[in-house]
From TrEMBL:
<dbReference type="Pfam" id="PF13193">
    <property type="entry name" value="AMP-binding_C"/>
</dbReference>
<feature type="domain" description="AMP-dependent synthetase/ligase">
    <location>
        <begin position="12"/>
        <end position="339"/>
    </location>
</feature>
<feature type="domain" description="AMP-binding enzyme C-terminal">
    <location>
        <begin position="397"/>
        <end position="472"/>
    </location>
</feature>
<dbReference type="GO" id="GO:0031956">
    <property type="term" value="F:medium-chain fatty acid-CoA ligase activity"/>
</dbReference>
<dbReference type="GO" id="GO:0006631">
    <property type="term" value="P:fatty acid metabolic process"/>
</dbReference>
<dbReference type="InterPro" id="IPR025110">
    <property type="entry name" value="AMP-bd_C"/>
</dbReference>
<dbReference type="InterPro" id="IPR042099">
    <property type="entry name" value="ANL_N_sf"/>
</dbReference>
<keyword id="KW-0436">Ligase</keyword>
<dbReference type="InterPro" id="IPR045851">
    <property type="entry name" value="AMP-bd_C_sf"/>
</dbReference>
<comment type="similarity">
    <text>Belongs to the ATP-dependent AMP-binding enzyme family.</text>
</comment>
<dbReference type="InterPro" id="IPR000873">
    <property type="entry name" value="AMP-dep_synth/lig_dom"/>
</dbReference>
<protein>
    <submittedName>
        <fullName>Acyl-CoA synthetase</fullName>
    </submittedName>
</protein>
<dbReference type="Pfam" id="PF00501">
    <property type="entry name" value="AMP-binding"/>
</dbReference>
Length: 487
C-alpha cells in the first residue's frame, strides 16, 4: 500500500491509492478506496441533481453496511447535513425526526439505498466541494428528540480533516496508515458513526459487523487482524462471560486501541478486559452536544482506576455547585465544559440551547469531581437519564406513552442497576380504580408508540407514587424506595 500519512483525508487517499482496501461489509464483500470514492461521487452528484444546496438536510434510515459509509462521505463533500436515524424507531418516531430536520432526501434500503441516488450520475468529483456535517438527534427531558447542529466549515473537506486526525492522534493514539477499524455498534449512534468517518479519513480498512455478538466480534478481529474498534462497556461484560476455551480460540493480539464510551465501565470489567487483551482500552467521556470532552489512555487509567480522564485538547472543564460556585478538587458537583472549537445549537430550539449553557460553558448534566491533577470521576449520570447497553433512554417519553393507556393514572420510569446492561428500565404504575391491566397489556400498548429497546423490562404496580410539595413526581424518591426494598 502507498504511504498515505501526509494525505488530508478520505477523498485524497482514494485518489492516490485506489486499490487500498476500504470496506469489508457485513456479508464479507470488499470494496476498495477507489471503488468507494466512485460511488460516493455519484451519490454526491445525485444529491446535487435533486436540487439540494449547502446547508440542506439528508436523512438515512439504514442498517449497518456500506450505504451508511457512502451517505456519510457523499454528504461530507457537498455541504449537506446528514441525519442518521435509528431504524428500530416506530414510524411515528421516524416521521417526527424527518419533519423536524426538514429532510430534503430520505434514504432507506426499501427505496434502493444510496445506489438509487447514484443511478445515471458521473463518478467524477462534484464541483464546488464543501465540507458537510452530521446532525445527530438526541432526546431531552421532554422526550422529544432535538437535532444537535454545528456550523458547516464553509471550505472543502481537506481544510478541516487535518484537525480531526491531529485530535484523534492526541486522544486515542490513532494515526493514518494500514490499520483496520471494527464497527461493533449501530452506525446511527454518534460515536460509531463518527469513528466510521475517522477510519476513512485515516486510510484504515472498515470492517462492519451487522450487530454485536461476542463470538462474531472475536472472529472478525482474528480474521481481519483488526487494530482498533469502538465499544461500550456492555460488550466487555458479555465477552468476559465467554468460557475460557472459547476466548482462547481467537487471536486478538492485533488490537492496539479499543475506545469505549457511552456509559460508566465497572473497574473490574475494564481490568478483566485488559488482563485479556492487554493495555489497549482508551476511554472518553462527553455527549452528542459536547463531543469528546475528557479522555484517558490505558496507562493513565491503570494508575487511577475509575477515572474517565482529563480535558482533551481545546477543552476546559470545571465543577460547580448548585449556586454556580466552583468546587475544589474532590468535591462532587455539576460538570461544565467549554471548547475553543465551534459550538452547537439545538435545531429549531434556541430556548433549549440557551438553557443548556452557562455563558460559554455547557453542562452535560452529570455529577462528578476532579482530583488535584484534573482527572474526572463520575458520581452519577443525569438524574433521570437511563443508560442501558450504552444507549440513552429517557423516562419522560416512556411515561408519556404509558399515560395514554386508559387504565394508567400515573407512572414513574426509573433505571435500575444491572451488571450486564448498566441499567434496566423499570416502570412503576399507579392504576386507575378498577381492574388492573396486566404488564403484557401495557407492553402491547407501547408497541406502536415507542421503539422496543425503550420498553420496560419490569412493570410493577403501586397504589400511590411519591410527589414533591409542588405536586411534581419525585423520581429520586421512587428510585430510592424501589432499590431499598431490594437491598
Amino acid at each position: 500500500m502507498a504511504d498515505i500519512s501526509g494525505l488530508p483525508g478520505f477523498y485524497r487517499i482514494a485518489e492516490a491509492d485506489p486499490g487500498r482496501r476500504a470496506v469489508i461489509d457485513t456479508d464479507g464483500t470488499t470494496t476498495t478506496y477507489g471503488e468507494l470514492l466512485a460511488r460516493v461521487n455519484r451519490v454526491s452528484n445525485g444529491l446535487r441533481a435533486r436540487g439540494l444546496v449547502q446547508g440542506d438536510v439528508v436523512a438515512g434510515v439504514l442498517r449497518n453496511g456500506i450505504d451508511q459509509v457512502i451517505m456519510l462521505m457523499a454528504t461530507g463533500q457537498v455541504g449537506l447535513y446528514y441525519v442518521p436515524i435509528n431504524w428500530h424507531l416506530t414510524q411515528a418516531e421516524i416521521d417526527y425526526i424527518l419533519t423536524d430536520c426538514d429532510a430534503g432526501v430520505v434514504v432507506t434500503h426499501e427505496s434502493g439505498g444510496a445506489e438509487a441516488l447514484a443511478e445515471g450520475q458521473p463518478d467524477s468529483a462534484p464541483e464546488d466541494r464543501s465540507g458537510g456535517g452530521v446532525m445527530w438527534y438526541t432526546s431531552g427531558t421532554t422526550g422529544f428528540p432535538k437535532g444537535v447542529q454545528r456550523p458547516l466549515p464553509g471550505a472543502e473537506p481537506e481544510a478541516i480533516v487535518p484537525l480531526y486526525t491531529w485530535f484523534l492522534g492526541e486522544v486515542c493514539d490513532l494515526r493514518p496508515g494500514d490499520e483496520a477499524h471494527l464497527v461493533t455498534s449501530p452506525m446511527y449512534h454518534s460515536s460509531p458513526c463518527a469513528h466510521t468517518m475517522f477510519a476513512m479519513h485515516l486510510g484504515h480498512t472498515l470492517v462492519i459487523a451487522e450487530r454485536f455478538e461476542p463470538v462474531t466480534v472475536l472472529e472478525l478481529v482474528d480474521r481481519y487482524r483488526v487494530t482498533n474498534a469502538m465499544m461500550v462497556p456492555t460488550m466487555f461484560h458479555r465477552m468476559l462471560q465467554l468460557p475460557p476455551e472459547v476466548r482462547d480460540r481467537y487471536d486478538v493480539s492485533s488490537l492496539k486501541q479499543v475506545i469505549h464510551t457511552g456509559a460508566a465501565c465497572p473497574v473490574a470489567v475494564k481490568k478483566g478486559i485488559m488482563d485479556w487483551w492487554g493495555p489497549v482500552l482508551y476511554e472518553y467521556y462527553g455527549s452528542t452536544e459536547s463531543t469528546i470532552a475528557f479522555a484517558v489512555k490505558p496507562e493513565e487509567w491503570l494508575e487511577r482506576p475509575g477515572t474517565v480522564g482529563r480535558p482533551v485538547p481545546t477543552f476546559e472543564a470545571k465543577i460547580l455547585d448548585e449556586n454556580g460556585d466552583e468546587l475544589p478538587p474532590g468535591e462532587p458537583g455539576m460538570i461544565y465544559v467549554k471548547s475553543s472549537l465551534a459550538g452547537f445549537e439545538y435545531r429549531k430550539d434556541p430556548g433549549k440551547t440557551a438553557a443548556s449553557m452557562r455563558g460559554e460553558w455547557y453542562a452535560p448534566g452529570d455529577i462528578g469531581f476532579m482530583d488535584k491533577d484534573g482527572y474526572l470521576f463520575l458520581c452519577d449520570r443525569r438524574t433521570d437519564l437511563i443508560i442501558s447497553g450504552g444507549v440513552n433512554i429517557y423516562p419522560a417519553e416512556i411515561e408519556a406513552a404509558l399515560l395514554e393507556h386508559p387504565a394508567v393514572a400515573d407512572v414513574a420510569v426509573i433505571g435500575v442497576p444491572d451488571p450486564e446492561w448498566g441499567h434496566n428500565v423499570v416502570a412503576l404504575v399507579q392504576p386507575v380504580p378498577g381492574p388492573r391491566p396486566s404488564p403484557e397489556e401495557l407492553l402491547d400498548h407501547l408497541g406502536p408508540r415507542i421503539a422496543r429497546f425503550k420498553h420496560p423490562k419490569v412493570i410493577e404496580f403501586r397504589d400511590e407514587l411519591p410527589r414533591t410539595p409542588t405536586g411534581k413526581l419525585s423520581r429520586s424518591k421512587v428510585r430510592e424506595d424501589y432499590l431499598a426494598t431490594r437491598g
